[in-house]
Amino acid sequence: MTARSDAGPVGSPRTTLAVSALGTLLVLVAFTAPLSTLNVTATALDADVSGRTWILSSMSIGLAAALLSAGTISDDFGRRRTLTIGLLVIAVGSIVGVLVPDVLVFVLTRVLVGVGGAAVIASSLGIIAHTFPPGPQRAAASGVWGASVGAGIAIGPLLSALLEKADSWHDAYWALAAASILLAVAAERLVPESRTEHPRGLDLPGALLFAGGIATLLAGLVEGRQGWAEPVVIMLLVASVVLLAAFVAVEHRSATSMLDLSLLRSPAFGAATLAAVAIGAGAIALMSYMAGFLGAALGISAMGSALMLFAWSGTSVVTALLARRIPASVSGRVQLAVGLLGVAIGLAALTGIDENSGWVRFLPGLLFAGIATGMVNANLGREAVASVPAGRGGMGSGANNTARYLGSAVGVTIVAVIGARPGPGSAVEDLIAGWNVAAVVTAVISALGGLVVFALHRRATAAARADVTAAGV
Asked: Where are its TM segments located (predicted)?
């Protein structure tokens, strides 16, 4: 036995899965809510260009900085407890962010919501790994969890656009806070507590160094979009390198390391982690930029942009739910590789846009990329848990989702820099030219990710066969 359940509520596996998936859905709703109402939100908060960038990027900092620590904490101190606390943190951050009409406060509360979201995502996959044994049951549950990621991305922009149109941009955050509180109560009543039988203990120095290194890296990337030669950007990036190097040194010597660095030599862990980076730097990065681009370059409304984003994310939900029907003989790593290559094809189809392009021109690429993204989402969670020692599902989830949001942050920065590149044409022509290049770049990132994941799969398969042969001899 590698994990234990404590006394407490005894919910059915379906109920446990529903609460875990809904928690992840709420995090993604929070993550994408500002996409369709950025202009209204920025105007209300009197945010300049830099402030707008921070409104979109701040939650990523909280997520990426806290995910790995949250995974370890959930495994050691209780997955349901971590889930509940994370949901309450999301509620508090959402409420304070709309009560205080100041861009700095809003950005800081978005970082706080990211920290709460990290606790929810890391613990939810840990709960699923504990509840469902490896095999078809876990595959199906992982598909539902993957669908919740796509559903959250789909619902966030639509919800905020609808509520802003009906009343105020504040309403989406009030709704998010209310839903988070209700789900926290449901979790306490319906989800059994579980934790690992062999806790490693919280590696506080490692946690602080990693969080500081990731936070300064992402802050440097955000500020760098305004100019890479600025002293503050250079200081942030240098600080990030120093802190992350110190983290690696501490983890090598720590008896309670929050991340077993030997996992970096595992092809299975490498494939899952790289796939997460590639989906973040590819599809998520381009889609995060798309809503603003559609309005600025093509004059498409916030609701229209949200509906076009739904064509991608909604399709991914359906695919993630259907992925459990793929034969078990097709391994999760192969599905990740095929999914990333499919994402590359879909993103490549989004290039060649001109001033007369309407929503119909985008639809084939969005749908194809959505199908492929759903396949990736359905398998990422399962492979993240399978690639770490039994009972450390929270750590595996934390590491994998950290990679996803790091990839997203890097990808969004690349896309933003390409999109803002001045050219010989008008402002609109330059935006369209930048989009066309960004679509190709993100497609290449996705394709390279798929090819490397497939290579790692072949390496892992060869190593497994060698072990079997050696055992037979």
From this structure: 54-73, 85-105, 111-132, 139-160, 172-190, 202-222, 228-250, 271-291, 297-322, 334-353, 359-381, 402-420, 432-456
